[in-house]
Amino acid sequence: DGGITQSPKYLFRKEGQNVTLSCEQNLNHDAMYWYRQDPGQGLRLIYYSQIVNDFQKGDIAEGYSVSREKKESFPLTVTSAQKNPTAFYLCASSISSRPTYEQYFGPGTRLTVT
Amino acid sequence: KQEVTQIPAALSVPEGENLVLNCSFTDSAIYNLQWFRQDPGKGLTSLLLIQSSQREQTSGRLNASLDKSSGRSTLYIAASQPGDSATYLCAQRGVKNQGGKLIFGQGTELSVKP
Among A42, A109, B56, B97, who pairs with B104 as Cys (CB 3.0-4.6 Å)? Predict the structure, then answer.
């Protein structure tokens, strides 16, 4: 069954700790994306990757880092430099970053930092 | 700045009613517009994708239209059911959008009462 998995579903961390969110897809998609969703706001792009070993900053990349060592995997690290990390994080993928293709989303990870 | 707006923010209707959700965007140079459904605490489910060359797309009881000249899209839901209760998000992919990113509206929270 093809799809996007994100783990864990809920994550709790203390302030000052780095935390890594997992995103895996078995759709053979080249492009992958990380978005952040806050209450009452639309999703905002953090990072994206068009191909393995390449990634680009999105609109709100400060305090985050990513890697793309494998086509299937695009983990997101929330560092202690992120001033307001508590949010719902959504990973997405697309066959290609070419704009005609649909994006598919994972189930999300809710991160709470206290 | 590219913006996507959804009005109303919340809508409550009785079961069986036909309804229209609205989405407006400031940048008419778009590749496509995508409608999503989000259940509480869940990821996004893609409903319909309308390419810029299309006027509408249909899937079951859902019909989405696109009018680039006026910067508007609508999602029509026929014979609404309680199971349709969710937040509906629209997102545009503009010519200027880096890496194929989507720009999201804030969503319309729909409640269908039995």
Answer: A42
